TrEMBL record:
The chain crosses the membrane at residues 6-27, 34-56, 68-86, 98-122. The keyword Transmembrane helix applies. InterPro entries: FluC (IPR003691). It comes from Flavobacterium macacae. The gene is crcB. PANTHER family: FLUORIDE EXPORT PROTEIN 1-RELATED (PTHR28259). Na(+) binds at residues 76, 79. It catalyses: fluoride(in) = fluoride(out). It comes from the Bacteria. Belongs to the fluoride channel Fluc/FEX (TC 1.A.43) family. One of its GO terms (cellular component) is plasma membrane. Fluoride-specific ion channel. Important for reducing fluoride concentration in the cell, thus reducing its toxicity. Keywords: Cell inner membrane, Cell membrane, Ion channel, Ion transport, Membrane, Metal-binding, Sodium, Transmembrane, Transmembrane helix, Transport. This is Fluoride-specific ion channel FluC. GO terms for molecular function: fluoride channel activity; metal ion binding.
Amino acid sequence: MLKSLLFVGLGGGIGSIFRYLTSFYIARYVPAKFPLATFTANILGCFLIGLLFGYFEKNNVVNSDMKLLFVTGFCGGYTTFSTFGYENISLFQSNNSLLAFAYIGASLIFGLLAVWLGLFLAK
């Protein structure tokens, strides 16, 4: 368990650093009213998790340490949106479209409500 935590922590720390760098450089060089830095991190994270899972599947990589380091750790530290995207694609691929749409809708609605509630309670 400790070894797994170390892999997740290392990957997460590196992913968080890359998230910060993505936000820093986009805000510095591409000023926009649209939250482009977050959007970019989310899309890059989704691309990366797809690339990693595709590579692991194609090459029969079953080493859980690699998945913990790169998928759970790095991608999780960079953006949890990538996991959200992957989970929904998995639901669609396993013919659970209704569940995928429910998950998407519930995540958006309850996520926004949770932010609103947190802001409201903090006042």
